[in-house]
């Protein structure tokens, strides 16, 4: 049984006071880490105030990191910096970074390797555009992203990685992939991981769905066999919704 993982992607939202209000409200209401991994991925300036209050049921993640451990890269954050603040997770290759900050599969690959080197769990986003799905290219696109993104990664590290399947047409649009489409595509991703890394790795790796997840659709999404968790943007900014969605994962545990 794969442990469910619920990740909030706060994107560029929340000030320190808003982040504090949120974590104080949710920290005792989300399930214990032994049952569900509940992670808040926030911006770097918020890390310290969140980590101090993560308690027994929350973990804090970053939304990006550089692939170099140090260097003259003005404005960037490194793996060792995140680790020194006990940051346990980092989102890598989010479609907004691929589209707006020119992140290629090669850069994504280097960042995944850097996260692993620094003992930070990467939440790696992959997904197709609407046109690509309409033209029947979804599996080809995902296959390319997986082959290039996970090049050079060993099976022992692959099982720690979280894969987030986020169809780009469903992000921030209110258009969720139906639970069946999401499950089928996550199943395809699992099969591809199996073809490259073997069935033991494919059985262990956790695959999330992301894209307009909210309290109304989370239960159905999490009821699907290939969906081990969700990556939530907009709806994760509301503490009551976050509490609901992390607790929805408990139904998968029982
Ligand atoms: P959304 O974002 O839930 O607002 O669609 C998801 C994401 O971008 O990770």
Notes on the structure:
The protein is α/β, with parallel strands linked by helices. It has one domain (5-253): Aldolase class I (TIM Barrel). The chain contains 13 helices and 8 strands. Strands 1-2-3-4-5-6-7-8 form an 8-stranded parallel beta barrel, surrounded by 4 helices. Helix 2 links the parallel strand 2 and strand 3. The longest helix is centred in the C-terminal third of the chain and has 19 residues, at 179-197. The model has no long low-confidence stretch (mean pLDDT 96). 2-phosphoglycolic acid binds next to strand 8. Residues 9, 166, 171-172, 210-213, 231-235 line the site of 2-phosphoglycolic acid.
Short recap of the structure:
The protein is α/β, with parallel strands linked by helices and 254 residues long. It has 13 helices and eight strands.
Topology:
Layout: E1 5-9, H1 16-26, E2 37-41, H2 47-51, E3 59-62, H3 79-84, E4 89-92, H4 95-100, H5 105-117, E5 121-126, H6 130-134, H7 138-149, H8 155-158, E6 162-165, H9 179-197, H10 199-204, E7 206-210, H11 218-222, E8 229-232, H12 239-248, H13 250-253
Parallel strand pairs: 1-2, 1-8, 2-3, 3-4, 4-5, 5-6, 6-7, 7-8
- Return the domain count: 1
* Ends apart, CA distance between termini: 11 Å
Helix/strand order = EHEHEHEHHEHHHEHHEHEHH
The appropriate CATH architecture is Alpha-Beta Barrel
Structural class: alpha/beta
Can you identify the CATH superfamily? Answer: Aldolase class I
Number of helical regions:
13
- Do you know the CATH topology? TIM Barrel
Bound molecules: 2-phosphoglycolic acid
Q: How many strand units? A: 8
Largest sheet: 8 strands, parallel, barrel
Percent strand = 5-15%
In spatial order, strands of the major sheet run 1-2-3-4-5-6-7-8
